[in-house]
What does this fold into?
Amino acid sequence: MIPFEYVRATDVAGAVAAGAAPGAAYLAAGTNLLDLMKGGVARPTRLVDITRLPGLAAVERRDDGGVRIGALARNSDLAHDPAFAEAYPAVAEALLSGASAQLRNAATAAGNVMQRTRCAYFTDPGSACNKRRPGSGCDAIGGETRLHAILGWSEACIATHPSDFCVPLVALDAGVEIAGPAGTRLVPLESFHRLPGTTPERETVLEPGELITALVLPPEAAAFAGHSRYLKVRDRTSYAFAVVSAAAALRLEGGRIAEARLALGGVALKPWRSRDAEGLLAGRAPDAAAFREAADAALAGARPSGDNAFKIELSRRLAVRALTAAAAGTPARLPALPGSVLAPAPEAAHV
Amino acid sequence: MSFDIVLTVNGTRRTIPIPDPRVTLLDLLRESLHLTGAKKGCDRGQCGACTVLVDGRRINSCLALAASLDGAEILTIEGLAEGDRLHPVQEAFITHDGFQCGFCTPGQIMSAVGLIREAQAGDDPERVREAMSGNLCRCGAYAGITEAVLEAQKALSQNAPTTRQGEAA
Amino acid sequence: MSETALRPIRHGSNLGQPLTRRDGILKVTGAAPYAADRHPPGMLYAVMAVSRIARGRVTRLDVAAAQGHPGVVAVMTPQNKPALAQHPDEKHDGFTFRLDLLQDDRVRYANQPVAVVIAETLEAATEGAALLDPAYEVEAPAVGLDGAEPYTPEAIGVGDPADMATGDVAAGLAAAARTVAATYETPAQYHNAMEPHAVVATWDGDRLDLDMPSQGLAMAQARIAGLFGIPPANIHIRSPFLGGGFGSKGMIAGPQVLGIMAARLVGRPVKLVMSRPQMFGPVGHRAPTRQTLRLGAAEDGGLTALDHETLTATSTFDDFVEPSGGVSHTLYAAPALATRHRAVRLDTGTPLFMRAPGEASGSAALEAAIDEMAEACGMDPLDFRLRNYAETEPASGKPFSSKALRACYAQGAAAFGWSKRPLAPRQMRNADGLLVGWGVGTATFPALMFQAEAVAVVRATGAASVAIGAIDMGQGAWTALAQIAAEELGLPIDAIDFRIGSSDLPNGGIAGGSAHTATAGTAIKAAATDAIAQLTALATQDQRSPLYGAGNAGVIARDGRLVRRDDETRSESFADILTRAGKDAVEGKGAAGPDAAREHYAMHAHGAVFAEVTVDPDLGQIRATRLVGAFAAGRIINPRLVRSQYYGGMIWGVSFALHEQAVMDPRTGRPMNANFAEYHVPVNADVPSLEAILVEEEDPHVNPLGIKGVGEIGVTGSAGAIVNAIWHATGKRVRTLPVTLDKLL
It folds into this structure.
């Protein structure tokens, strides 16, 4: 990595001022940023260490019933916060299905939202990538594309966003609290990440110097606590990025779906919420037919970006599975294999 | 750009010069402090061989910038045993043959110590396996590792009500 | 041996005891030194720049930029590299592999080293290497098994013929009541030991001191000596611990030599450690294969013919051809048998031995094909294997030196519960509605012997030492070989100063081919026997000894004494014998190597692996929920360590079946998943249940210790068992490995 100036911020205003300089990047745990710097993908000339910003690690219940997740709350702390996990079980499950215990112990909530794509052509500086070098082309197209996007991609970029955490968050209408040179603003997570279009280098709506200070879940989000799941299909039983994932949350009233939430992960350059699917489910009985229709709606615009057509049907089936699991009810305790579609191994066997 | 940080490493508080802000905790431990127990298997947070406890939590030291950890308490494999008395996790790894080549072992053991402190897995082998999945073992010693973690956890809960050095955070 | 067998099991030194690892405390405290842990005074850091293209030329390196980076001491390129005494492409024998040592500007595979930056700090060396930013003249690479014209290799593996046939395969297929023809593909895999290849090199004039993981010290020493034009004795390699090898550290790797060159260039000690992505190129891999099997069977399920054709790949500049067909030579009793190997030359690094080279890939295909034939015959796959049990080795006609495979099948099946298996696929589900399937595979690996020497010294002080340049790469040589030494010297294990892992010790041969315990152990046994014989001669020819005249009855060594076999009250300590003889010590020498019995017998370890998988019927996600392996591998020196070897092998089988594959961009020949996040090997949660059964087997022929070797056999059989279990769960035969979930949708 190139030499950089290390600046330790002590307050948000100072951080924003230091972070607005060209070439600056914010450092929290660094689990993604240092990885990218070591690979030569990110080459910031100034690191603004925000880990000591006061008050940014808290998870606060708000008077309106919502919750404010401090940007620096560690993934594992958030997932293991009993009140949080009870109110937002799919978020906890998503967090615990991601990465490893070590990474979750370090990585922050905002860092998770800010993580970059795993596209091998993005992480390899020897490949053309419009995201890394605008206008250079996209070597992923026509290359190894098994895990690339099926929704929202463009000829400029077919990468996916790798976060698990963001998938239930976007389903639950989370907001992103942003501090910047011009003050503080709140942006829906759904519009925080940008689809690639012709400017895949612009990954989020953050302006130079802007800093995520919190993620906010609105009061209504907790109403889904009884019927929420996050499921993640992957190539290993654990410690693997999603092939595809799905967050499903239902509010049931009198045996019918009063309100549904559905989002998919690993399918697009952003966590993909399907309001069409949600709309179809409202008022329906929670049955297989309804779930299948919803899944079809969620994938209606899907098309392969390479050798990944299987992800379309896989996503449909996973959406159905997640909705079915949500309808069955949130498990009393998080599964031994969070997010796994496979049940735990029977312990009659050997350790 | 050179500056000092203060770290408590295996119980000893020390002022450490950081001549280059690029240095990671892992490289600081291995190349400057010559605490080479933590291993570099991937340098990218993908294998767990570099796992140490920072303020009582297991993390990948390869993805932690040393400068950022100013003031932290670090426990490495070298600080785990008390003199000649092995930590129960260390003992259990030997008994259950929870390693072969030994390269991932310091990371596995520190991860296991962290896991037991987290107290999320209980005595459920499946939860232990899941929680230890951030530590790759190419030799394939997973069965012994899982057995060792379960046994050590039992031993710790029965025999060691007092907090151990470096685990007080 | 009978004396040993009669002793009660104890936590002691004898053969067969489940000792815990003697290096255990070092390993669990972080004190075991691996090469990259060393820091000689004045040491510099070397970091390689590697090629991003697979074929072409380096046209420019920004040496000035690298050189200008603070802390950079030197940049080593083809222009200024130290002169070598031999061209790195010179070959001397089948074990010399061509190396990339900056000999010119050619690029012949992705991740080939193109320069080395040496700096005061690791950070500076790393950034210096990045700043070189090579420019290339790119040529279209040959990628994939269809990427070049196949040829018939002169030899496969380590010198076997490419083709072999016995009987009339065409007639056998024509006469068959049922035939199966299927093509299986296995991907390129990279060893990826947890410890990246490393070297810490210190020159002192023309003497060279090295910390370097090596599976074969004498061979590495000889190769370095040749390259640098210095006597082998001038080179001292310390390799007490390897962080895994799996074949990739069998020969010295190019990057390790580059570290030595860098040290020579700057005249200071240098440490060079490869990064994980750099491990996907210059340090070997298992080549991809495409294997076509044609089987014929009679009405009763007896095989009439077995034809096994392999297409694989080697590099454009060197030869290692994965010998996948070998397993078909030995496993099933087909009266007509043929194997053929063809290869293509691709722009990759040269493939190399990777844990069970040939056997792993060949077994994965053969076991699947056998399963398909069992299905065609309507037979239980285990019954089918028993029906075609080979009483003599099919390819050679030789009797087996021993073969307890029937017992492996029986004990494995019983432990697994195989008898409850429904014949048809897609019959079993678990409580959650997931598909469950059971499969079996036969495991086999040859019992090899290499060459080694050892020295055993017994001193008048009562102390003893055993020295051999043997290697512990995790299999447990520090423990198992010491057990052999203790057994043969009749001493408590802790009374022996046991030394391995250094090139200044007698040549311990190579830790490979699952033959190291057998080979090094035999050399140790011979050395100890020699030492004891010298002590015996001193005692039995000396009238003052209580053992005088014991010639015919003989003596045995036990607890530091020689004891008359026919009268245990008459004994004398080693120390007393030597003291009275006025000698400080006796030095026993021993050697091991293949003997004439190999010409008369087929020598193989065998096993049976039973696998259970769970498959999501809609989503395709797979888990190998249960594996039971039963293995017969001759004499077991330490069952605790052997069980671990079997577990490790079986997990490699899981990896082979479900996870591992290098994904190459067909346009560039660059591995696109050269890291541990995307090149998947199993994690702990992938292997919830393992059981290994150590089946008794006595082999009087294989070597004096009766050891067959256990390091690789676990990989064989396992992958096939899992793939067969997936078929049993789903009804789908996936013939392209690994079986990823998309292939089941």
In short: The beta strands of chain B are 3-9, 12-18, 51-54, 57-60, 73-75. Chain B touches chain C through 62 residues (CB under 8 Å).
